[in-house]
């Protein structure tokens, strides 16, 4: 028992001595060195973050696009250095260009800076396309009419409203299976214009049924679903000044007392202080139509398409720019069609071909820059012109398609 007690006592720890004190000092010094190392490491990491800030900004582009349900097609390190400084809200536009086959890495810093943000686009035209007729039973009415094997999808719209772009998107990407089944793959059912003429007014039903454009002599008008392009009057009117096609009015441009050129213009100021509207006339292939003003032409031409009883769709030109695939698919399927297999084919170069369209043509990047902001809205108009426009634009058309009036008559 005593021996066991002695062995137990022999294993008890010794009281602190000089050796334990030295160990505490060593551990204290090591702790201080560890803290110093952590501070140095933190400073290094902070500097590293500063040096890679542009990469982080590019990452924000991708993250923001993903949160906005955008289809991310490029990585941060794929963008040129200058492009990483863009606002994250431009990512959906850059993705759209990338989908269209453009290498965004080759775009200059100036072009990237001019590209609108997605917020600017949606502030003008909303987040979704507007296609009038989709919710009015047009699609079922057309598909159930006559023989689907004889159906066509054709394009219409007044001048400068994107009819060539719409036709190109449909021809390159859509087909009507019921027609191909009977007539073969050489007849996909998509036509670049309606048989009565894409620019022809439709307020005369007898003329629409009888008149046939070139190469459309054997087509029945009721076998064609019309896809009608409309364009924001805020920019459409100025485009008519650049290229009026068959429209004519008294003066194509005029100068005010300050020497500023105004076009388009809707009000003539007489020397006696009175004003009157500037009438226009349009020379169609078989007749000439007179309008009180360019505004009235826009109102009456599209108002007639709204009021017809036969199937048709009205869609915005702007949606062909910012939602090309979605709009093409909806219009195609409404006619009983399907998108072609393979990648969607975008129109990167101008869809306008030939001298009749003038020398200044707009490619895809130009169109996005021009129509993605309000910078070009209501340009070239005087105070009297803007007041006239605000008073006479058809409120029904403006509401249906979400277009905005001039905010102030003197803007």
Textual characterization of the structure:
GO terms for molecular function: sulfotransferase activity. The chain crosses the membrane at residues 21-46. InterPro entries: P-loop_NTPase (IPR027417), Sulfotransferase_dom (IPR000863). Residues 290-401 form the Sulfotransferase domain. This is Sulfotransferase domain-containing protein. The chain has 411 residues and is an alpha+beta fold. Among the domains are: 56-115, no CATH class; 131-244 and 295-372 and 392-400. Helices cover 43% and strands 11% of the residues. It is built from 17 helices and 13 strands. The chain has helices at residues 2-10, 18-51, 53-67, 91-99, 109-114, 118-125, 138-143, 163-173, 177-183, 205-210, 233-242, 294-307, 317-322, 324-334, 364-371, 383-392, 395-400; strands at 131-132, 152-156, 174-175, 224-230, 247-249, 254-255, 261-262, 267-269, 275-277, 280-283, 288-291, 312-316, 338-339. The strands form 5 sheets. Strands 1-12-4-2 form a 4-stranded mixed sheet, with helices on both faces. A hairpin with a 5-residue loop joins strand 6 and strand 7. Helix 8 (163-173) packs across helix 14 (324-334). Residues 1-21, 43-85 and 351-361 have low confidence and may be disordered.
Summed up:
The chain has 411 residues and is of the alpha+beta class.
What's the SSE blueprint?
Blueprint lengths: L1 H9 L7 H34 L1 H15 L23 H9 L9 H6 L3 H8 L5 E2 L5 H6 L8 E5 L6 H11 E2 L1 H7 L21 H6 L13 E7 L2 H10 L4 E3 L4 E2 L5 E2 L4 E3 L5 E3 L2 E4 L4 E4 L2 H14 L4 E5 H6 L1 H11 L3 E2 L24 H8 L11 H10 L2 H6 L11
Helix pairs in contact: 8-14
Pfam families: Sulfotransfer_1
Organism: Phaeodactylum tricornutum (strain CCAP 1055/1)
GO molecular function: sulfotransferase activity
């Amino acid at each position: 028992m005593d021996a066991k007690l002695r062995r137990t006592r022999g294993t008890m720890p010794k009281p602190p001595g000089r050796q334990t004190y030295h160990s505490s000092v060593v551990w204290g010094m090591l702790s201080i060195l560890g803290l110093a190392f952590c501070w140095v490491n933190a400073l290094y990491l902070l500097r590293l973050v500063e040096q890679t800030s542009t990469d982080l900004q590019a990452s924000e582009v991708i993250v923001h696009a993903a949160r906005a349900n955008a289809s991310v097609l490029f990585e941060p390190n794929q963008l040129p250095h200058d492009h990483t400084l863009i606002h994250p809200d431009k990512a959906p536009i850059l993705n759209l260009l990338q989908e269209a086959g453009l290498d965004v890495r080759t775009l200059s810093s100036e072009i990237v800076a001019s590209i609108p943000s997605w917020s600017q686009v949606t502030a003008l035209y909303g987040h979704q396309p507007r296609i009038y007729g989709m919710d009015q039973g047009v699609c079922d009415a057309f598909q159930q009419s006559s023989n689907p094997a004889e159906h066509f999808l054709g394009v219409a719209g007044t001048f400068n409203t994107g009819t060539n772009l719409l036709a190109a998107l449909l021809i390159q990407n859509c087909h009507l299976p019921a027609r191909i089944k009977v007539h073969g793959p050489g007849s996909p059912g998509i036509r670049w214009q309606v048989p009565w003429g894409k620019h022809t007014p439709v307020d005369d039903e007898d003329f629409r049924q009888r008149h046939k454009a070139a190469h459309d002599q054997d087509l029945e008008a009721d076998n064609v679903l019309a896809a009608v392009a409309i364009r924001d009057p805020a920019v459409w009117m100025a485009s008519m000044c650049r290229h009026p096609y068959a429209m004519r009015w008294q003066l194509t441009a005029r100068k005010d007392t300050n020497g500023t050129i105004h076009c388009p213009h809707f009000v003539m100021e007489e020397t006696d202080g009175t004003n009157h509207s500037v009438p226009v006339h349009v020379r169609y292939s078989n007749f000439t139509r007179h309008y009180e003003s360019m505004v009235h032409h826009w109102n009456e031409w599209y108002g007639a398409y709204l009021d017809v009883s036969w199937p048709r769709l009205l869609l915005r030109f702007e949606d062909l720019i910012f939602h090309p695939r979605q709009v093409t698919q909806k219009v195609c399927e409404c006619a009983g069609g399907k998108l072609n297999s393979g990648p969607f084919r975008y129109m990167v170069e101008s869809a306008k071909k030939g001298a009749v369209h003038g020398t200044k043509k707009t490619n895809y990047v130009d169109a996005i820059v021009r129509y993605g902001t309000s910078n070009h809205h209501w340009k070239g108009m005087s105070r009297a012109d803007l007041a006239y426009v605000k008073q006479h634009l058809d409120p029904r058309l403006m509401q249906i398609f979400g277009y905005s009036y001039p905010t102030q008559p003197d803007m």
